[in-house]
Design a protein that fits this description.
Elements (H helix, E strand, L loop, with lengths): L4 E8 L6 H17 L4 E3 L27 H13 L2 E11 L2 E9 L5 E6 L5 E2 L2 E2 L13 E4 L2 E5 L8 H9 L4 E5 L14 H15 L2 E5 L2 E4 L2 E4 L3 E3 L5 E4 L5 E8 L1 H9 L2 H4 L14 H17 L1
Parallel strand pairs: 1-2, 2-3, 9-10, 10-11
Antiparallel strand pairs: 1-16, 3-4, 4-5, 6-7, 8-9, 11-14, 12-13, 14-15
Helix pairs in contact: 1-2, 3-4
């Protein structure tokens, strides 16, 4: 067996209003993916429910569940039975009135490896996530699974290059991005799909890693989710994708490609963290830049 070869499975589905049915449908697809050889399987963001942050209502808090819920325990057992690594994004109830957008990771023996909680919480028309989710407090953990070392960024996290870099620096070979992204209600003429695909696959280039992004698909109330789940290689090339339909994406990858990409593009060698201090500051950078530019001109002239 080649330890560098890994088979990834992404499950792209449309969610209905019945949570029990959504879970049952997903379980069937997990089993199908495993039968087809998938070793690491990732579900879409908030996999068991329709995307409730379209509106603001206290009733939606009832969807959240603790990490020891029957659903989560049954998926841990499924990971063990199928000998697959399973990434399960859920609406987590951490305590009374305390909720996170989370992804739980189970190894191929069913053991719990940890939870990533979404760090960047968006807020905009029909993406009212700040009402429902506390910003994550788990940082950016990586998980050393039976089949490889992985990192996770949840939806809005995936747009931020800092997240990908931190995960890669810690040793992640594959970045998984469970997502729920689709139409922009205030800009109905705009599709972000290509921008989404380019931004995320570019993380593969700058960090020399594989990227696996999984999205939901279909109409849910006033939003249409465009699917487009994909896997890209360490040079940012899309090697397989799904379109606007439900389905399972399974792709074999060779982790040795990471060595080849990093030996070609030496971003890790040439990075200069000692010069990146501005990234840790919250000032208005435009004003600060004008000030710095003025001082520079003054110093040069004198």
């Amino acid at each position: 067996m080649n330890d560098n070869k890994v088979s990834i499975g992404l499950i792209q589905l449309q969610c209905g209003i019945d949570i029990v049915q959504n879970v049952s449908k997903t379980v069937d697809k997990i089993k199908e993916a495993a039968e087809k050889g998938a070793q690491i399987i990732c579900l879409q963001e908030l996999f068991n429910a329709q995307y409730f942050p379209q509106t603001v209502t206290v009733d939606a808090y009832a969807i959240a569940e603790p990490l020891d819920s029957e659903t989560i325990r049954s998926l841990a057992q499924l990971a063990k039975d199928l000998e697959v690594v399973l990434i399960v994004p859920v609406y987590e109830k951490a305590g009374r009135g305390h909720y996170y957008n989370s992804a739980v990771v189970f190894d191929a023996d069913g053991s719990y490896l940890g939870t990533t909680r979404k760090n960047h919480i968006p807020d905009g028309p029909q993406y009212h996530e700040k009402y429902y989710f506390t910003p994550g407090n788990t940082g950016y953990p990586i998980y050393k699974t039976r089949y490889g070392t992985i990192g996770i960024g949840i939806c809005w996290d995936e747009w931020f290059p800092e997240v990908a870099r931190i995960l890669a620096l810690q040793g992640a070979d594959i970045l998984f991005y469970p997502s729920a992204i689709g139409s922009e209600p205030d800009h109905p003429e705009v599709s972000t799909r290509k921008s989404w695909e380019k931004a995320i696959s570019a993380h593969g280039i700058s960090n020399g890693v594989f990227v696996a992004a999984v999205n939901r698909v279909g109409q849910e109330n006033d939003m249409t989710f465009y699917g487009g789940s994909f896997i890209s290689n360490p040079l940012g090339e899309i090697i397989q994708f799904l379109d606007h339909e439900e389905g399972i994406l399974i792709q074999d990858i060779d982790l040795q490609e990471i060595d080849s990409a990093r030996n070609l593009l030496q971003f890790m060698r040439d990075r200069r963290p000692d010069t990146y201090g501005l990234l840790l500051q919250q000032e208005a950078f435009q004003d600060r830049g004008v000030h710095l530019n003025h001082n520079l001109k003054k110093n040069v002239l004198t």
